[in-house]
Amino acid sequence: MKEEGRLGTAHVYESMLNRVKNFMAGTSAHLDDITPLWLKAFQNYLLGRQLHWNTISTYMRMLRAVYFRAVDVGLAVYRPRLFKGVYTGTRITVKRAIDEQTLQRLYGLQVKQNCPMDKARMLFLLLFMLRGIPFVDIAYLRKCDLKGNVLTYRRRKTGSWLTVEVLPQAMRLIEKLKSRDTTSPYLFPYINKVGNEAYRQYRNALRRFNALLKRLAVFADIPCSLSSYCARHSWATIANYRNYQQELISNAMGHSSVRVTETYFKRHTDEQIGQMNREIISDILVGIH
Asked: Does any domain span residue 94?
């Protein structure tokens, strides 16, 4: 994965491996030693370390992927339903979406031009306008990925290709945020190296961006915390609120399935549910007193 430039995914595999090593306390284990009981004990170990269920699921899915690769090359015997007793799903956690009014407030917010916080504000809005593009994909965009008003890029996480129409509002933000380094192949100034150094620059830029977004939320008096992924969740949630097909939303975001997209959706409010009920009743019982 490192050779393929998939450094983020490689990092998750390394984290899983380190957890297994800690669980084994220095002893070695063969792939055949991985049994339902072993997996259950490993899951309990992770729970005891106060890991969230989604993190535990990620580690279990990484371990499962390694196991299936080992089966494919003859290093392990296939055992059906081996991972049935441990958690490999996705729990719907606290949502990171903001509503349309908050987005509009951010768009019109007056911040000192070209200061770091204002650039963070513009970048957040750009992430939203480009269909909730993740920060990692923005960071690695090359200048050649943008042709006219069409952006074509390959998602770092899934490898899927996406084509996005860049609307005039988004293009104005790109012009303000793009790299001025004529020697850099990248569209934005967050990285200018390749390989491990590029990944380190991306991680540092992401940390700075999230820190600035926290300051921006306080400055704008936004009650929830802002983060890079908040733009992505907001785009999915607003599209869902506007009754676009969930499969369409999933395709727009480059997800592998609608099930993945559903974890982004924020629950509807009681007022929205009440409004829906009022509209249904009024439509059905129109003219009836």
From this structure: no
Residue 131 CA from chain centroid, whole number: 12
CB atoms within 10 A of CB 56: 22
Q: Return the CATH number at 204.
A: 1.10.443.10
Of 157, 139, 147, 174, the C-alpha closest to 254 is 157
Q: Report the distance separating Cα 134 and Cα 190, nearest Å.
A: 14
What mean pLDDT comes out for the span 1-7? 79
Q: Residue 68, Cα to own-chain centre: how many angstroms?
A: 25
Check residues 285 and 9 and name the one with the higher pLDDT: 9
Q: Can you tell me the mean pLDDT for 107-124?
A: 91
Summarised one tens digit per residue, pLDDT across range 166-202 is 999 999 999 999 999 999 999 999 998 877 788 889 9
Same domain, 131 and 246: yes
The residue range of the domain holding 131 is 100-262
Examine the domain organization and report whether 135 and 244 are in the same domain.
yes
Residues 126 and 248 in one domain: yes
pLDDT digits (tens, 9 = 90+) for 65-86: 999 999 999 999 999 999 999 9
Instruction: Decide which of 72, 92, 119 is a domain's last residue.
Output: 72
Q: Residues 145, 187: contact at Cβ < 8 Å?
A: yes
Beta pairing partners, 154: 161
To which residue do tokens 């809005």 refer? Answer: 125
| Residues 28 and 105 occupy one common structural domain | no
**What are the start-end ranges of the H helices in 109-195?**
116-129, 135-139, 168-177
Could you give the count of Cα atoms lying within 13 Å of 78 in the half-sphere of its Cβ? Answer: 7
Residue 287 lies in a domain: no
